[in-house]
Amino acid sequence: MDIAVISFSIVLLSTGLSLHFLPSYSRPDLYFGVTVSPELKEGAAARQLLHHFRVALWCLTLSAIAAGTVFERAHILVAYLAGVYATLAIAHRNAAKHRVDPVTAIDIDLTAPVERLPGGWLAVILPIALLFGVGAWAISNSATALPGAAMATSAVMTTLAMAGVSCLVLTAIAFGILHGSRRISPPGSGAAAERWFRRRILLCLIASEYFLAMLGALSVVHAPSVVMVSMNCAWAAALALCIETLVLAGQGGTHRASTPRETVIGDRSPDHCWKGGLFYVNRHDHALLVEKRMGIGYTLNFGNPWSWLLLASLSAIPVGILLLRPTMPPRVNATTAASPGTEASLRRYIDSLESGQPNYAEMSPSLAAAVKRQLPAIMDTIRDVGTFRSLTYEGVDQNGSDVYDALFEHGRLEWHVAPLAGDGKVIERHFRALAANTEGPHVPLRIAF
Amino acid sequence: MILHIDASSETPVYRQIVDGMRVALVNGELAPGDSLPAVRRLALDLGTHFNTVAQAYRELAREGWLDIGARSGARVIARSVTPSKPKSDTSFRRRIEEIVAQMQAHGITRSRLARELRLIAQTLEEN
User: Fold this and answer.
1) A32, A40, A51, A413: least surrounded by Cβ within 10 Å?
2) Is ipTM > 0.95 here?
3) Do A107 and B3 touch (CB under 8 A)?
4) Segments of chain B scoring below 50 in pLDDT
């Protein structure tokens, strides 16, 4: 079976499984986003509602998996998500029949400990500082005097910028939870459990920030595969453990064994502000983030204008980076002559690939490391396209690299070669496959060195 | 120290904050040097506007209970107590009578009111 179909099925099964247990995570006095008496969940009406929800959910999930083997999976996914939302909305509407008025009395402990970020603000700034440091190192180690370094530099900066933006997003969420969300549980063991829950969420956010920063940094310095895999496995295990403790503890830590039932009734937000039980819209509430009524964690208060500003700015930054990054295919200036030695260097490189022994001696250390890492994929491509036939100079791209069209027996590859370094070594080179022997729009299939 | 606020009460929220905090200040549950929650934090937790909490803090500051700093937030300070004047004694008694009447209007019996007032008086004398 196609790996894409398997992946799609796994994603849907995981989603279905998470949603299957969704009502179990909520606070005791919330059911499908509605304020209810805590005793309702143990009654027949609630069990019937849950049963109908789960039947609908799994019918949707299994149907989507089956449809994904035949139809366009992106469309199926959209339809599935729409179906899931409709199912939740229906359950929310049915649960609303059992709604109770929330308790309006609130007890606040004026001497409660001030909540702080685990490790302080230094803990969240360090990953971003690491990315800056790696960026500065990468730029200083590239041959900045040569125009060809612009390609390597732009790719490096894009990777680091995306990692940095992700870290900033996580920092913003942590800040929002600390200073822009409401504490719900009354003083006592309930408040202690809620503090534990919020602290655990902040730890997850900070850990994710460190992971993203290290991922970005290690990809730029071309760390060995074993290091990348080990780091990924360790982080995944740590995150899974963290999430499991959160899920077992329930929303706000209300399901922890050490937390006795305390009278709350409601999460301090009006029922009518929860659209479909999922989206919170309350213009009169100054909270930026509110606890989700279904699931674990927080959601934006879409009635707060700052939430939209936050959402727009967080969305604009990565979109802007993606739009500004070098896109394929780069524009080629055919009137500029090739840099000395690039054609001969490329011919020698292609010959070396065909012989199975890449000429690493003619590459810079970073390029050689990249080629070694991608060698299996490169050799697969060379084998697929067959015997080398001819090389045609096309021009210079917008990054200053010479562009060559290499014709092979069964295909064409477009090579971009940066001007050689002073010692004649190649510092930057990549290729992409073109549609064989046809004119027309370039179809990037693979980018390698 | 627990502050109890009822959003559905006829008493405005800021008045409930002032009255509740004053009880704690008088009873010594909040001592000089104690920091109060930031305006934003308390307003978020109560689900009320920032100005409501700020108004309550300002009133308590006017009464001499709090020192409000721009960055340091609100802090309890030592308050000097001036002897009450006869006019304030009269208004105080009237206020007690108004509260008693309000409680009776809500259905609390006279005997229960008397019992609660005796308990409060006893607590005051012991402190």
Assistant:
1) A51
2) no
3) yes
4) none
